[in-house]
Design goal:
6 helices; 43% strand; 2 domains; Porin_O/P
Length: 479
Amino acid sequence: MGARTFETGLLIAGVLALTPQAASAQSNAELQRQIDELKAQVQALTSALAASKSAPAAAEPVAAAPAPAAAPAASLAAAPDQPPAATPASDPAPRSKAWYERLSLRGYTQMRYNAFLSGDDSAPAGVSRLRSVHDSSISDRGGFSLRRARLVLQGDVSDRVSLYLQSDFATAVNNQAGSERREGFAQLRDAYADVFLDKGKDFRLRFGQSKVPFGWENMQSSSNRLTLDRSDAINSAVPGERDLGIVGYYTPPSVQKIWDRLAHDGQKLFGNYGAFGIGAFNGQGTNRTEQNRGLMKVAFATWPFELDGLGDALAGQVFEIGGSAMMNDVQPELRSGSVSPVAYDDDRVGIHAMLYPQPFGIQAEWNWGRGPEYDRASQSILTKKLHGGYVQMMYRVPMGSIGALMPYGRWQYYRGGWKAGTNAPRLETDELELGIEWQPWKALEFTLAFARMKRAEADERRTGRAEGNLIRTQVQWNY
């Protein structure tokens, strides 16, 4: 109750207590004296009550003023039991985070060392040397190299919009003469915004530079991939994996539930790019200026099936299958330094299948199509057929406190052009890779592999195919 209400109550109680005394008073002056004493006592108690409200709960109660010897004072001291407890102030409402406080920073770095055991690490002019379009450190010069040094800034800037920025600080360029390779340059990899069309975030539109949804392996992050490099056949569709455009994705809640379970189990997923995707991109490639008015059209679909109902042997197993298709017109770079004035057909379809390793797994992709390829007979670029893919097997070995081991083997095959190279040279790839990945902690991974390669060098000025055996190593740290 308020202080004034409390004061009035005490005054009434005191008057009632004084009634017998007042009846026997000899004069009005004696009665007035007792009333003045009562008022003083009530004022003292009111002040004590106000002080107790402002003091901490643990503070000792304020002592009342000494009561006079008169009987009314004794009656008044017994009247109030205890001042009411102070009502605690309500906590202020939590402040909503600003958009920049919702962003997070993460990344990973990969360092490699490749060693030739035997083979054609060098060759005379005009003859293929053993080289890879995915790892320039496979050469006769050897040495350590930084394959990737990625930094990602991402987060939800609102309930319906999120952003994603990724740069690579291990990009290499050549000097002006083209004779010396310079490393450690920064390059934009991703710069896009996701706009969610529903509260459950099942539907979204992605605007900006992002991965083109063609091929399961292409969309899987290199930080999460088991093998050291992507396969030539699948990656030849979108070298660099990215382009500038708009793509829509849809993921049914039932599919998302399966993927969440697999991720919690530690499986190497391809990243949630949607169970279904359809988009349009420039089509010229990562960080390359568009050269024509045509757009790359691409579609992707994948669906996981839980195999628990097929018996105890398949309990917990998930089988995923899907496909992708693209239609494009591309203008390759020419040996003269310019870009081809001719736009070549660049169309293909692909399929993929995956049995997630629990503990044994298998993964495979294949694609067919037509694309630009250098023709030696006519000394020009023509549109030619292409085909190829890979088959990969792996086995998960949980190791408890020392992490997990995953041995694997992959065979890959490709016959077709490499549109990202100068003059779109023809690749002829046969490769077997046997390796093992050890991840002692989430922040650290080691990969050791043996590779038996037979490849045509991605240079139309060199003929034939080179062969060789290599030991390949990589350490990756995540942050």
